[in-house]
Request: fold
Amino acid sequence: MASGPVFAQAELAKQKNCLACHAADKKLVGPSYKDVAAKYKGRQDAAASSPKKIREGGVGVWVSTHARHPQVNEQEAASLAKWVLSQ
Reply:
């Protein structure tokens, strides 16, 4: 069973509607969290660039477009990115 920060981040992902397109271990509309973590493993810039992609969206990294999520504030985006990259 998840505890502490891990559970808190899973709840935040649920609250911010991340789970509509992402799952921990399987591709939905977007990649799984484990696939994201594997792709960016060892990249020093991943934790810094990922929050911006969460909030502002992006094009062509995984799918043709990643939707903007302005309802996610900067602190939440940083926390979610760190959590996803730790999967």
Remarks:
- The two ends are 15 Å apart (CA to CA).
- The chain has a mean pLDDT of 87.
- Residues 29 and 45 are 25 Å apart (CA to CA).
